[in-house]
Amino acid sequence: MYYKVAKASEYLAITGAGINDVKLLKKAWILPGQSCTVFDLSPVNYTFEVQAMSAEKLPFILPAIFTIGPRMDDMKSLELYAKLMSTHDRLSNHVKELVQGVIEGETRVLAASMTMEQIFRGTKEFKREVFDKVQLELNQFGLLIYNANVKQLVDVPGHEYFSYLGQKTQMEAANQAKIDVSEAKMKGEIGSKLRQGQTVQNAAKIDAETKILSTQRQGEGMKEEIKVRSEVKVFENAREAEVAEANAELAMKKAALTRDAQVAEVEAAKTVAIREAELQKEVERMNALTMTEKLKAEFLTKASVEYDIKVQEANWELYKKQKEAEAIFYEKQKEAEAKKAIAEAELYARQQAAEGELYAKKKEAEGLIALGSAQATYVTTLLQSVGGNYHALRDYLMINNGMFQHIAKINADAVRGLQPKISVWTNGNGNEGDNNKAMKEASEYLVITGAGIDDVKLVKKAWILPGQSCTAFDLSPVNYTFEVQAMSAEKLPFVLPAIFTIGPRADDIKSLELYAKLMTTHDKLSHHVRELVQGVIEGETRVLAASMTMEQIFRGTKEFKREVFDKVQLELNQFGLVIYNANVKQLVDVPGHEYFSYLGQKTQMEAANQAKIDVSEAKMKGEIGSKLREGQTVQNAAKIDAETKILSTQRHGEGMKEEIRVRSEVKVFENAREAEVAEANAELAMKKAGLTKDAQMAEVEAAKAVALREAELQQMVEKMNALTMTEKLKAEFLSKASVEYETKVQEANWELYKKQKEAEAIFYEKQKEAEAKKAIAEAELYARQQAAEGELYAKKKEAEGLIALGSAQATYVTTLLQSVGGNYHALRDYLMINNGMFQDIAKINAEAVRGLQPKISVWTNGNGNEGDHNNKAMKEVAGVYQMLPPLFKTVQEQTGMLPPSWMGTLSTDSPIDHSPNSHT
């Protein structure tokens, strides 16, 4: 018994014990009684020269390269290949003969039904037909054609059909070159003669044009002279009209300025008179005010003033007493209102608190009902998903809630810090391999197969575990240089040098997996990979070239390159390869078929004859140019004479126009200056009138200002005289007796008034005090009533909240109980799991064992004499099994839950039996 791992491009074919037919795997344990064969998936190039015959009985050789390998994306095909082909080496003569027989048979049958021209013209369709029919035959062996490169058809010795076609096309090109040379000579001689005739014709044409132009210039000079005389007369009349208009405007301006000056003088005189009248009115008003003040001072006595003072003092005392009583009453009233407000606030606070408690209870009840409904739905759904198995549901909830991890963490915390004495006994030899880790450079990938991997795995770094195989492959592209020999649609052979830069498609994991499976067994610079790439490129290039003429290929090199690029890339995709760059160089002649050389000779002869035509053209241009310059000289002389006469006449007319224009402008300027002088005189008269008005106004205002100030001061003097007269009269006519009498009378009146007001104040104070006591008593009664109302309201709301919470909890429990089918034990377990009771129990147990110092012995019964394969493969499994019994024992003790039966059983006095000898 041993463990076998296939590489990325390999498969294992296993037969024997426990397998009905054959089993294909990437990795497997090979048991006693089983046989294992490794076969490679990478394709192989098969090169043939198929001899066939067309419908016209013309034999030919068809060189071909087929890239063939197992169909790796179909397990049925891989099983066929494993059964029929895996016993032979894929490069053996047996496999090559089988493939060659299929290809030659289908190719001959198809060629016999087509003419040679149909085969050559429809190379692409012919290749597709052969491809499809051969693939149909290879399907029964589980083989796939990855690429088929059908090269250029070749003559059979003694039947040189393609050579004759090539010679025919070559001779046609040579004869066409001779025709083109003769055509170029003919064009050169005819062109020279044509240029001589054109020279004579152009000279006669220039003489005629010179005479016509001279006559035209003389007529133009006479016309210009007549035109200038008429324009001068019209201009003179226009200027005289402008002078007459300027004279009229000057007379009108003088009349207007005279009128404005006279109006300004009249306005100045009247304005001074109006201002003098206004100031006189203000003086009279001030004199009237002065007389009024003088009369008031004479008739005002001191007695009336003192009486008013005493009355004000008595009113003040009464007002003071009233305000003090009102203040006391206001204070008592506000105190009562404050007590009442406090009582209302306390009642409102109690009500709001009770409302809040009730709202919280109701929302808690609603949340509990919603939670119960959601949890019931959750539990019901889970219970239905596990087929009504309650134990499976319980295990799921404990696993999903991380209870085992939580308990394990609690147990770990409990034993952390212990100092146990542990003895471990095992029979393993521990000789592991050293190559368990792999890392590669930036341009490389690792392809890993084996344990834990279904097919292949591509990574940049990995631990290579026992039972795994690792292969590294490079992503960097490689340059492939070829000289592709092809033939155009006219049967003209040519060489197409090309350089292709090709490598794995690094940005696509699927392509990299294809490359890893098909190509990693070969070095990217090996002959096998080069043949594969060259076969794809040559095949697509030849097929495309056969459908185009030589001119189409040469003119459309860019499109030709794009077509080749796209078709080659389509074929390379199935190997996970990408074309990074394709450089198609210049087309080259095949020796003996110098098509491009003949084209060069034709171009060279055309250039020589064109040179002859250019010489004749230059001579013609020289003679015609000379004659043209002579004619142009005569024409220009006549033109200059005419232009000189015209210009002289124009200048004379312009001089006369300028003289008339200056005279008229001088007259207009003279009138404008006279108008400005008249305007200045009018402005001077207006300014003089204004200044005279301002001076007179200032004199009047100055005189009246003195009179106004004199009246104001006289008013003040009269006021002071009145006050002086009052004091003097009091001193002379008021005797002491009368003063004392009046004083006693005033005092008696004052005392009476004072007593009355004091009594009124006391009464007012007592009255307000009584009202305040009444308000305080009412406020205290209201506060007691509100406090009692608040207590009652709070008790009622607390009772309502308790009822709502009880109802919600009852609904929650009823809903959960219905969801588990009325199973009380299931409900209890769910509540304990959901509320974390098991974790709390584990924490309590952990606290109980914290700080212990146990002695632990672990025994295994492996014999240690097994082979290296068993030791490496089973060591990790045995280690995992040795860790499970203590964990399951703890879970069983704390939760009452047993592990699945397939993991072993727990006894009352021993852990789970998981030793290697307990399983077969």
TrEMBL record:
Coiled coil (residue ranges): none
Alphabetically ordered keywords of this record: Cell membrane, Coiled coil, Membrane
Pfam families for this protein: Band_7
Polar residues: compositionally biased ranges: 904-920
Domain Band: residue ranges: 27-185, 443-619
Locations listed in the record: Cell membrane; Membrane, Caveola
Main location: membrane
Membrane topology according to the record: Lipid-anchor
Cellular component aspect of the GO annotation: caveola
Stretches for region Disordered: 901-920
SUPFAM superfamilies hit by this protein: Band 7/SPFH domain
Presence of the UniProt keyword Cell membrane in the record: yes
Similarity comment: family membership: Belongs to the band 7/mec-2 family. Flotillin subfamily.
Xref: PANTHER family: FLOTILLIN-LIKE PROTEIN 1-RELATED, FLOTILLIN-RELATED
Name of the protein described by the UniProt record: Flotillin-like
